[in-house]
User: What shape does this take?
Amino acid sequence: MDIFSGLLSGFQIILQPINFLYCFIGVFIGTLIGVLPGIGPTGAMSILLPTTFGLSPVSSFIMLAGIFYGAQYGGSTTSIMVNIPGEPSSIVTCLDGYQMARQGRAGPALGIAAFGSLIGGTFSIIALMFLAIPLAQIAVAFGPPEYFSLICMSMVLSVYLARGSFVKAIIMIIVGLLLSTVGMDLVSGRPRFTFGCGTLIDGIGLVPAAMGLFGVSEVLMNLEGSLEQTILKAKIKNLLPNLQDWKRSIGPIIRGTLLGFPLGVLPGGGAIIASFVSYSVEKKISKNPEAFGHGAIEGVAGPETANNAGAGGSFVPLLALGIPPNVVMALLMGALIIHGVAPGPLMIKQHPEIFWGVIASMYVGNAMLLLLNLPLIGLWVKLLKVPYRILMPLILLFCVIGSYSINNNVVEVVIMIVFGVVGYILRKFDFEAAPLMLAFILGPIWETSWRQSLIISEGKFSIFLEKPISCVTLAFAAFLIITSGLKYYRKTKTKVIIE
Amino acid sequence: MKKYHFIPTFFWLGLSLFVMMFSYRLGLGGFHSPGPGLTPFLLGFLLLLISLYVLIKSLLEKERGDETPREGQSRTNYGKIGLVLVALFAYSFLLERLGFLITTWIFLFLLFRSMGNRWMTTWVASTSTVLATYFVFTFFGVRFPPGIFGLGG
Amino acid sequence: MKKRIFKGVLCISIFFAIVCASFNSSWSAEKKYPLRNIEIIISFPPGGPIDLQTRILAKYLEKELGVQVVPINRPGGGGSLGAGILASSRPDGYTLSLMAQSSIIMPVLLKEAAFSIEDFRAIGQVVAPPPVVFVVSPDSPWKTFQEFVEYAKKNPGVKCGHPPVTTTAFLKMSYINKYANLKLIGVPFKTDPEINVAIMGKHIPIAMSGVAALRGPLEAGKLRVLFSFNPATEIGDIKLDPATPDFESFFGKKPRFDLATYLWAHSKTPDEIIEILKRTLEKVEKNPEFDNDLKKVGYRARYVDGEIVMKEVMPDSVAFIKEILTEIGLMK
Assistant: This one.
């Protein structure tokens, strides 16, 4: 079945009323989930999974998939409005999106996030159609050494996330990596740094940590001064991005899609790495990198596009190989299996209606999401006008419920508060949370890949250079370090000369 | 070049030593069979090196008289911050004892009031928020702890 | 005087009324369990084998019991977090969990559990031992398990991938490794799909993996199975070559132990409730549709009464797992 007839049949499927309805339900719930903290797409999908038992496999998959990529749209909303990432892939959006909101430009930020998400999402579907099988082969080529090198490179890039000094960013990365070792060790099964606390046995939760580090610390910062200031005083300018915004964003959007999709394909990678890498790349190639971190729209356009492209990309291994690259995909795979369908290379042949039905549903879903999210921008912007003295307790409650609701565990709330304090202290001393967060998220994969590689090579470090992909990636990372090192050195030299 | 404060540097130094000590105890294994403590140990060591570098650099700068005074600080409202933190910890402690509805209401009431809202606003905001969040989140399948009278479970 | 007598009669009647009411309510509790939703804890992340088995079981339990049986994922600590939650839950029959016995035994033996084995009571075995298999890539030099065994013995240190130390697949791999003296070096992976990718990409030559995640790639010929711990017939709908050797056919005798999934409740749950659950479970197990649903995910139903589990299977498993853990150095 060639692509066009396949797509046509897919559209016939999605336009059936029941599938159309479930697509809408899926993306709607997904958006809500993305906005609400704590409950992520995985949680919502597993709650709704039993309701799909009575449905056909196609309808179930369409709805569950909708929840997933819908959440990528909603997650940026709270990041921009109150510096609280609704989804881990929206953490980077906090950096510039929130600053834009503080400057009264929440509307354009939300708008460009929505449009970027649409473009990234749609492009990834197209790529999915044409490139699924060849890309899957590339995904398989990544083993432990390749992962290690890839993540090393991501971390080098992430130093660019920082606004300030490199040394501080490096310290933050190390601390982030250390924090990620808390919990049960994969290789030996022994708990590390848990100090007897049962909740920590699976590590520090990402959601409480992110909400504390970004959301709560922001609240604490705002409480410092008088209550008059903060976000809302800046006059809310237009609601949508203007021509200049678009001009600045078109490059990041294109680059975001190109970067995001392949990164999403890699198992373990996904939307999160895509967003971080996009931000770092944009900052590095920008003509005025100092604007980043202070409301540069490129810092919103790129990552938001990348994370949606990445979400689309993560369907590739599942649909083409039957291998779920992350937890969400694993759940989708479980759902398919329960319905008697085995995802894998044969699925396209045996159940073309599922493959094409889902692809068509993604087009429709993304369009629905844009229509849903755009009018909401007006609503969100109005919310921002609420005085901070009313908004603040709500924000805190939001974070608290979010942390609690993951596991019905109060300890998670305490973790969040602790991270809030830590985040606050760090900011007072000019350290930044973003590199820490990235290192924290990537830490487990990084460490596991490293140890697996050493076990496979029996202790020889040369394995990282022997494998071609790994070698190239490390060389690139080294290149980045050297070039920035040179720049830094030259800058200091000039400073001394001036003095 | 940013000015480095001493407090965080000493903190990182202490932390790196602590980490190295604990990870050593966990067991380093060998490179052919990395143990649970190996990665944290190496990371701690790296942190140690960097903090030493920063420390030495700052000491050198100080000798050169490079101290720029901190920008004039307006009096920071640590009181408010402290109050919020106390409220947060208290909430965590009481949530499972008193139940969601009661604890959240008290939490919100205290915070709204401390932010300078009028009594009426505080009452209305607290009550409506508690009810709204209860229903919205319960709809999504989140379960809250039942209160002492079995309320709001 | 009349007033006094009246008061006395009133008090005694109230007393009797209360006594009768409490009798009634305890009878009604027995008759009417379950009165509200039951939670069933899944100690592993969604989409995994235990998750799938539990959701299918929950569907059928719901039909029989008439209340919602809500599966809740509480992954962590390789299964010990969920077990801990069950151990500290109220013993009223409204919290259950589906686990392999290793999820309970291993944390206790490794002294990292907040619970003890006596905190749990098995209602019954639910699923036949989850099959685990040795997989290789299609162009691997070993065409049969026999070839592999011979190679491994001559070349100690073959790298073999496996899921985390706390899983049944790992325990079974260690068992075969020791039993057949294969001298394998284990490469740990976090999930079965990661293992499949590593095999397909030829990053490791062989691995032991659960069967549920295998189906797609296997049917497409991207992976090959050399050996299955349990007979191919027990592996549900996943079509293995019937000539694939299993433990008994290859080594000539049944494996000394096996790990299966059981339904657990808190040990202090009242006997009446346990009885109701047992009868319900037995009914579900006998339902051919239940077996069919399990087959779709690569498993088969098998029922064994909880008493047998507690009296025979558990002590056996404890002794056995202790042996393996000491052998691989996790226990002193």
